[in-house]
Write a structure and sequence with these properties.
The complex is a heterodimer of chains A (about 120) and B (about 600). In chain A, strand 3 and strand 4 form a beta hairpin. Chain A has one domain: Beta Barrel (Lipocalin), CATH 2.40.128. An eight-stranded antiparallel β-barrel of chain A has the order 1-2-3-4-5-6-7-8. With about 120 residues, chain A is mostly beta strands. The longest helix of chain A has 12 residues. In chain B, a hairpin with a 5-residue loop joins strand 8 and strand 9. In chain B, helix 8 crosses helix 9. Helices cover about 50% and strands about 5% of the residues of chain B. The chains are: A mainly beta (about 120), B mainly alpha (about 600). At the A-B interface, strand 1 and strand 2 of A face helix 12 and helix 13 of B.
Chain lengths: ~120, ~600
């Protein structure tokens, strides 16, 4: 009884992030970088894509846990592969996102934080 | 256009009686135009009439001529009446004339569609300007048979390049295991910028099978098939599904996505716009407004800003039709970086103004500008004003008081294209201010007016101002030049490349001017103050131009209601620049179709 009550509480708390989310990250040079994601959520399963200037990139290792979502995005530019981990805390129609590089070649750095707002 | 059947205002009637009815009377009226009982039922006839009066074509040369202020009052009263008539029902939707992708749009669209970095438009002829003065205007974007051949060549060249490139193949959908139909099903909606039907797929599939029957390889057959797609009017033209009903309707989301992307990017919609259209969300005002911000912050907006700004200001001519004289400006000729910095300054300024949502009045005067190390040297601005790193790249700098470099009038590109290659021209600069900034171009000079005499060898040196004063002694010239020249005189401290000077031909610069209404000013800073008092005229002109650019056509009198509406929004929002873009996109002519 208690377990099912907790389960109900957890799922009631879980956000449904399905839709398009956009936001701007100010990079280390002070230049704005636009981010737009499309998420599709089924329970705790999450899929989606990061829109790019030319083409989108699928997100992977994505999951929803309560009000937190995590996923990675792997991009390739001129043969160099970069993987970034995104951890976001959802609060209604916005989420605070922390982005950090996870590939071994990346220099250790503080995660970059930015806000995403729900567009649809 | 609404009928304009009301009689003209009293002031206009007395003008018509004094200067027009002797020829356009009831008995055998010239050109069949009877102005004794003016009840012309079509506004466009009035428009033609006032244009001829404005250009001093009417009354004709041998007839009594009205004084300049009488002419002005007549034009104002008729225009006011026409405007009130056209706007009785508020801003209206309009027809969107079909127009070809212009050279730049075609190049950008093919680049994104195929993911190739190739200037495929290099062999296409440059497009002329039409509508509000831009090369994306429907009035000039037709397709002649010779041009169609050029597009066929461009399609062939781009596809033959793409088929050899792995990234382009992936973008087109040429992946192992995919059939020609699979390729078309993903490629065709992107090329046509909307979903397609099975009936639309079939003809291109037939092209593929025909090529296969002739023994062509799979790749060659795909190229043949896609050449057909790139020659389709659905690809080559801005084609929107027609409105079947009599009432104006909201554009469908795909057509809206295309209007938006060709306005703000000069290219096809991206995946996000397509997704918003497929979800049926793009037309929702909050989504649309958010999308405008996203698009303006994208690097792709540089295409729109560059295209709009250089055509509006005329600075596109710099380095092309207009080249400063190498003998007078050897430093400019020898320095390609300086040339680029000069050319890009107004573009980067406009972009910076938009992204920071600065007021449009910054274009008249500002406490900041765009600087580089080369521009700082040219303008005599201390290098300490520049940022510490990357000083060769254009960036925003704050101006010290008395720098004389605020707004457009402090920029070399503007000051150069409103000069002759070897010397300044107060006439050209005055005309530039009246036309480009205020949207009130002076009428063309009457025929047989002698050109300004250049300095003769052996004669006593005269300043340009003295020579222009002689020119104005001719009463035929004086009427217009009394409005034009003073504006240019105030800019005489800038030489033909925009460098600051205090002397001309060995004499001190006289930078004073007085307009016919008695407004006096001295030097560029006081001229800026005068122009700031006319900011509504400036902003109205800018709105007119940008609305015409966004709609890809010349504006009609009915559009003036939309301009009024946007101007109202701008005034109540401190002339913030993003309000202009938002006002245009949210306007009826942009979002609706007739």
């Amino acid at each position: 009884m208690i377990a099912s009550g907790l389960l109900f509480a957890a799922s009631a708390f879980a956000a449904d992030v399905s839709g398009i989310w956009t936001g701007t990250l100010t990079d280390r040079n002070g230049d704005p970088q636009e981010f737009s994601f499309r998420f599709t959520q089924k329970g705790e399963a999450l899929s989606g894509k990061l829109y790019g200037e030319n083409e989108s990139t699928a997100i992977s290792a994505a999951k929803v846990s309560g009000d937190q979502i995590t996923f990675t995005v792997t991009t390739e530019l001129n043969g160099q592969i970069t993987t970034s981990l995104y951890v976001a805390k959802v609060d209604g129609n916005q989420m605070e996102v922390k982005r950090s590089r996870t590939d071994p070649s990346a220099k250790p750095a503080e995660p970059q934080t930015f806000m995403l707002k729900r567009l649809t | 256009m609404a009928a304009f059947a009301a009689p003209p205002p009293e002031a206009a009637n007395s003008f018509l009686a004094s200067y027009c009815v002797s020829c356009h009377g009831a008995k055998s009226p010239a050109a069949g135009l009877n102005l004794t009982a003016p009840d012309l039922s079509q506004a466009d006839r009035w428009t033609r009439l006032i244009n001829r009066v404005r250009n001093s074509e009417m009354p004709p040369r041998n007839a009594p001529a009205p004084a300049a202020d009488q002419r002005e009052a007549f034009l104002k009263s008729i225009e006011g009446a026409l405007h009130a008539d056209a706007c009785a029902a508020g801003p209206a939707a309009s027809f969107a004339p079909i127009r070809r992708l212009n050279r730049d749009e075609y190049t950008a669209t093919v680049r994104e569609l195929l993911n190739i970095h190739l200037d495929v438009g290099h062999a296409l002829p440059a497009d002329g300007a039409g509508g509000q003065g831009f090369d994306n205007a429907a009035e000039v974007l037709f397709l002649s048979p010779i041009l169609a051949e050029k597009y066929m060549d461009a399609a062939k060249e781009s596809l033959e390049y793409a088929i050899k490139d792995s990234r382009a193949r992936a973008r087109i959908g040429i992946v192992k295991g995919k059939t020609a139909r699979d390729i078309l099903e993903s490629f065709l909606p992107r090329a046509f910028r909307r979903p397609v039907t099975e009936k639309e797929i079939q003809p291109y599939l037939t092209l593929f099978h025909e090529a296969q029957k002739r023994g062509s390889s799979f790749d060659a057959s795909v190229v043949y098939m896609l050449r057909g797609v790139l020659m389709s009017p659905q690809f080559l033209f801005h084609a929107e599904p027609p409105n079947p009903g009599p009432a104006p309707r909201l554009l469908d989301d795909y057509a809206l996505a295309s209007r938006l992307s060709y306005f703000l990017w000069g290219s096809m919609p991206d995946e996000l716009l397509f997704d918003l259209a497929s979800m049926g969300k793009l037309h929702e005002p909050e989504v649309l407004k958010a999308e405008i911000g996203i698009m303006l912050r994208s690097g792709k907006s540089r295409q729109f800003i560059g295209s709009f700004v250089t055509q509006w200001l005329g600075t596109r001519a710099l380095g092309r039709e207009f080249i400063p004289d190498p003998k007078v400006f050897p430093k400019y000729t020898a320095d390609a970086d300086l040339q680029g910095d000069i050319r890009f300054q107004p573009i980067v300024f406009f972009q910076s103004m938009l992204t920071s949502n600065a007021p449009l009045t910054d274009l008249i005067d500002s406490k900041w500008t765009i600087g580089t190390s080369k521009l700082a040297d040219l303008y005599g601005i201390p290098r300490s004003t520049l940022r510490k790193e990357n000083q060769t790249q254009p960036h925003r700098i704050e101006l010290a008081p008395g720098s004389h470099r605020g707004g457009l009038l402090g920029m070399s590109a503007v000051l150069a294209v409103s000069s002759y290659p070897y010397r300044t021209s107060p006439v050209l600069r005055g005309k530039w201010v009246l036309d480009s900034m205020l949207g009130t171009p002076p009428p063309p000079p009457p025929p047989n007016v002698p050109a300004l005499e250049e300095h003769k060898e052996g004669a006593a040196p005269q300043t340009l101002r003295e020579r222009l004063a002689q020119h104005r002694e001719n009463p035929v010239c004086a009427g217009c030049h009394s409005s034009i020249d003073p504006l240019g005189f105030a800019l005489e401290n800038y030489d033909a490349l925009g460098q600051w000077r205090t002397q001309d031909a060995g004499k001190p610069i006289d930078n004073t001017g007085e307009l016919p209404d008695g407004t006096k000013f001295a030097g560029p800073d006081e001229l800026r103050a005068v122009l700031l008092k006319k900011k509504d005229l400036f902003v109205s002109n800018l709105t007119n131009r940008m609305l015409g650019y966004a709609l890809g056509r010349g504006l009609t009198r009915a559009d003036s209601c939309t301009v009024d509406e946007i101007l109202k929004q701008l005034k109540s929002n401190d002339y913030k620049s993003q309000t202009l873009i938002e006002g245009i996109v949210m306007s009826k002519p942009f979002r609706y179709q007739k």
